[in-house]
Automatic annotation (TrEMBL):
It catalyses: chorismate = isochorismate. SUPFAM superfamilies: ADC synthase (SSF56322). It comes from Bradymonas sediminis. Residues 209-441 form the Chorismate-utilising enzyme C-terminal domain. Its EC number is 5.4.4.2. This is isochorismate synthase. Belongs to the isochorismate synthase family. Residues 1-25 are annotated as: Disordered.
Length: 455
């Protein structure tokens, strides 16, 4: 990445400290301090190829950045988010972190299909399929102030902070230097040649009726003439998609594609004080044709599959559950979607981890019925979705937090990126319209990477 080149030596220690799957240290301690740092994107861009980092920024402007790994719940590939959350939380309750308990945030994600038979040469090598972990440094920017929570063994806290301080200072200099560079793209390798594969999948649903709904995605590779400037890309996403959650996850072990980032309009679930808030977001039109969605039976049916599944999946966990009686329109710069808000009161003892396991993946990104749609996706698409259409987010120790759906995103390396976008296919789908829809969904990342080619 462009930003890491200049000062790799001064921040090199960070990589050594942050083993991606550090086992749980015997006793964890925490320290809290305020930090002079206005833009956590800049810190992410600097840290991304040095140690695992995780960034998110919401419409409210709050930013969260996790640097390094203090502790990660070691569990089998099959284990749920809830079991990993439980393991980590239990270990922390025993540890000497209680004074800062309310500030602790566990970060994590799940791939679209954690059980997907992985090709060892997959572009997602190095990215955990399911992960819940506690970062070594948790930076939070809220109400114009930045704070840092440092987590590690008690006698090492100061050393941990000193290692990361160099990176924060370098990021502050980046921020003061102001001007952001932009990337140009001249070639777009096999950019739109996956059309036959896509059409085959669409026809299996529209003609052979293999399932009521299957969400089929495309993957596109971009080759740049210059290094990708992550700061610039994240800034462009914030400006063009302010109502979306911007996110970035790094896996420095993956030399070709160390960063996964994007700006998603879709929340999987938010839990706060026993209430769950989620949404069905499915059914898509051009940005200026949103209102017409309310009269399109195909889009309404596709949307209803998602509402029904969310209500069915949450029912066992909720004492009350309500959804919008009719969908509304979510307008974005590139597309409009049908949106139904869904809320519920959770039964005692149920937190975000259980909700995420119950909901993911919804028919908005998978299809219906879920198991069959997943199998068909693996069969028709022929590539590993990895974290695309997966879910990522944060949780506190009480089970509050938010997970979102990783859409409108790219897996990025120095001068290359893989972009992902899909569309819900039902019996009544029209190939041309679905193709155009995926093209429109690539737009945020094409623009963020300043791509010149639009197929
Ligand atoms: C699958 C994607 O988007 C999903 C599919 C939608 C649809 O088919 O109408 C709409 C929003 C998302 O839930 C994507 O952006 O890649």
């Amino acid at each position: 990445m462009a930003n890491d080149r200049n000062e790799k030596t001064s921040t090199h220690d960070c990589a050594a400290s942050a083993q991606p799957d550090s086992p749980m240290p015997a006793r964890l301690s925490a320290a809290f301090r305020t930090v002079d740092c206005e833009d956590l994107r800049v810190v992410f861009a600097r840290s991304a190829t040095l140690a695992r980092s995780y960034y998110r920024s919401t419409a409210a402007g709050d930013q969260l950045l996790g640097l390094g790994v203090a502790a990660s719940a070691r569990a089998g590939e099959q284990d749920s988010i809830a079991s990993r959350f439980g393991a980590l939380r239990d270990a922390l309750t025993d540890a000497d972190t209680l004074a800062h308990q309310d500030k602790i945030r566990l970060l994590g994600w799940s791939a679209f299909d954690p059980e997907y038979a992985r090709d060892p040469a997959s572009s997602w090598a190095g990215y955990a399929r399911r992960e819940i972990y506690l970062p070594e440094i948790l930076l939070r920017r809220k109400d114009g102030k930045t704070s840092a929570l440092i987590i590690g063994e008690a006698d090492k806290l100061e050393a941990i902070w000193q290692r990361w301080e160099a990176l924060l200072a370098a990021a502050a200099r980046d921020h003061r230097s102001g001007r952001l560079g932009f990337t140009t793209t001249q070639s777009a390798d096999h950019l739109w040649l996956d059309r036959d594969t896509f059409c085959y999948g669409v026809e299996r649903v529209t003609k052979d009726h293999v399932a009521p709904k299957v969400v089929l995605a495309r993957r596109v590779r971009l080759d740049m003439t210059q290094s990708i400037d992550l700061r610039a890309a994240l800034q462009l996403l914030s400006e063009s998609y302010p109502t979306c959650t911007r996110f970035a996850i790094s896996s420095p072990e993956n030399e070709d594609y160390p960063v996964f980032f994007g700006a998603t309009p879709e929340r999987l679930a938010q839990v706060k004080d026993g209430e769950v808030h989620t949404m069905a977001l499915a059914g898509t039109a051009k940005a200026n044709e949103g209102d017409a969605l309310l009269n399109k039976p195909k889009e309404l049916e596709e949307h209803q599959f998602v509402v029904d599944m969310i209500l069915d999946s949450l029912a066992p966990y909720c004492s009350e559950l309500t959804s919008d009686p009719t969908p509304k329109i979510k307008r974005l710069t590139n597309v409009s979607h049908l949106l139904s808000d869904i809320s519920g009161r959770l039964k005692p003892g149920v937190g975000l981890a259980e909700v995420v396991d119950a909901l993911h993946p919804t028919p908005a990104v998978c299809g219906t019925p879920r198991k069959l749609a997943r199998e068909l996706i693996a069969q028709f698409e022929g590539f590993d979705r990895g974290l695309y259409a997966g879910t990522f987010g944060w949780m506190d120790l009480e089970g509050n937090g938010e997970f979102d759906v990783a859409l409108r995103c790219a897996l990025a390396g120095d001068t290359q990126a893989l972009l992902f976008a899909g569309a819900g296919i039902t019996r009544d789908s029209d190939i041309e319209l679905e193709w155009t829809e995926t093209r429109a969904k690539f737009e945020p990342l094409l623009r963020a990477l300043a791509a010149m080619v639009l197929g």
